[in-house]
Amino acid sequence: SIRLLDDATAARIAAGEVIERPASVVKELVENALDAGATRIEVEIDGGGTDLIRVVDNGTGIAVGELELAFERFATSKVDATSDLLGIATLGFRGEALPSIASVSRVEATSRAAGQDSGERLLLEFGERLEFGKTGVPAGTAVAVRGLFSNVPARKKFLRSAGAELGRIQTLVTSYALVRSDVAFRLTAAGRERLVTPGGDDLRGAVAGTYGSRVAEAMLELPEPEPFADGVTPAFSVGGLAGAPSISRGNRGFITLAVNGRWIQNRRISYAIEQAYHGFLGERRSPIAVVLVKAPLNDVDVNVHPAKTEVRFLREDLVFGEVQRAVRSLLIATTPVPAFRPTTRPHAFSGSGG
Ligand code: ADP
Ligand code: MG
Question: Nearest ligand, CA of residue 27?
Answer without folding.
Answer: 2
